[in-house]
TrEMBL record:
Residues 59-98 form the EGF-like domain. The gene is Creld2a_0. The keyword Transmembrane does not apply. GO terms for molecular function: calcium ion binding. Belongs to the CRELD family. It comes from Vidua chalybeata. The keyword DNA damage does not apply. Pfam families: EGF_CA. Keywords: Disulfide bond, EGF-like domain, Repeat, Signal. This is CRE2A protein. Transmembrane segments: none annotated.
Length: 102
């Protein structure tokens, strides 16, 4: 078997998987910018919104940062994978960018 992966035939956001007589390109984990294999522990660099902890790219919980990011009145922060979103608190709804009581 010839290791086609030695020639790095895959794109930047993929890793090469050598198979018997061939190879395939697989997508890197969402937490990676470039990778050497499957999973968040094989990242070359962590994607935005992720931080390297114990050799693994882990989601940053922006909602638990010391500085509040959802600063509008009656707004809550919801952590998402690699990011966050600001939503109106329970009992409030978004009216032209302001959270008003429902």
């Amino acid at each position: 078997d010839l290791d086609e992966c030695a020639a790095s035939p895959c794109k930047d956001h993929q890793y090469c998987l050598n198979t018997d007589g061939s190879f395939s390109c697989k997508a890197c984990d969402a937490s990676c910018v470039g990778c050497t294999g499957e999973g968040s522990q094989k990242c070359k660099t962590c994607a935005s919104g992720y931080v390297k902890e114990d050799e693994t790219c882990t989601d940053v919980d922006e909602c638990n940062l010391p500085e509040k990011i959802c600063t509008k009145e009656n707004q809550d922060c919801v952590n998402t994978s690699g990011s966050y979103k600001c939503v109106c608190s329970e009992g409030f709804e978004d009216k032209d960018g302001t959270c008003v009581q429902t």
